[in-house]
Design brief:
236 residues; four-stranded antiparallel beta sheet; alpha/beta
């Protein structure tokens, strides 16, 4: 009897372990490099992605490669823009994921004038994926400065642009403390931008705490994605 109970216990533990691993690996990721079609060299570009058909999940990267999750098995559009190159537009379908739950797609850019769609339109939301804070604090890590400098450059090139920084935490813990932390973090980001000679009246802030998660999955990766700062263009 004891041997049978032991066997059942091992089987149960094994089943729970498999279920936990499956939950952790439930997200599909789109990944790839941005390269010059002629030279095959990396190109730093502005990469905008959003879920289809409604665009309720959006993000923007400034890099020569991209990686982002596809939530709820939705298709995503991806637009890649770089000075001196023709804008590239693609659709990412989760059905194309490989056995490792990844969609691997390098995007080649061809030389040419960028399309009129390169202007930052009012209402566009950009997720600042590389803005990193110390755990539980509002102090910005130095590795975040390069992405914030891209924002500063964008605002200097568009003298009438007004932005709103929106702070989000995960939904774990005390809701009031999360709201307080998200407010402190966006104020820190604003202080950095204003320190670069951007008028403070052009940088608004709004805090949401953990009320607008990108994912409800109870995994460390999903909680990390929910902790974010987003930039919304109010005027251009």
């Amino acid at each position: 009897m004891a041997h049978r109970f032991f066997t059942l216990s091992i089987a149960l533990i094994f089943s729970i372990g498999i279920a936990a691993a499956q939950a952790t690996d439930s997200l599909i990721y789109a990944e790839g490099n941005i390269i010059n079609a002629a030279t095959k060299e990396p190109v730093t570009a502005r990469i905008t992605y959003q879920s289809l058909p409604y665009g309720n999940r959006m993000g923007t990267l400034n890099n020569n490669r991209y990686s982002f999750p596809l939530f709820d098995n939705e298709k995503y559009s991806i637009v890649v823009e770089a000075p001196g190159f023709t804008t590239a537009k693609y659709m990412i379908d989760p059905a194309e994921a490989n056995g490792a739950s990844k969609i691997l797609k390098d995007i080649e850019l061809t030389s040419g004038a960028p399309s009129n769609g390169s202007k930052h339109s009012v209402g566009l939301v950009m997720r600042l994926d590389n803005v990193i804070f110390q755990v539980g604090r509002s102090k910005i890590n130095e590795e975040s400065y390069s992405e914030l400098d891209v924002v500063v450059k964008m605002m200097k090139e568009n003298a009438t642009m007004v932005i709103q920084l929106e702070g989000h935490t995960d939904y774990l813990g005390d809701a009031k403390e999360n709201l307080k932390l998200s407010k402190a973090r966006v104020e820190s980001v604003k202080d950095y931008i204003v320190s670069k000679n951007i008028n403070k009246s052009r940088v608004k802030t709004k805090a949401f705490g953990g009320t607008q998660p990108l994912s409800r999955d109870d995994t460390p990766e999903s909680h990390r994605l929910n902790r974010r700062v987003e930039l919304r263009i109010l005027q251009n």
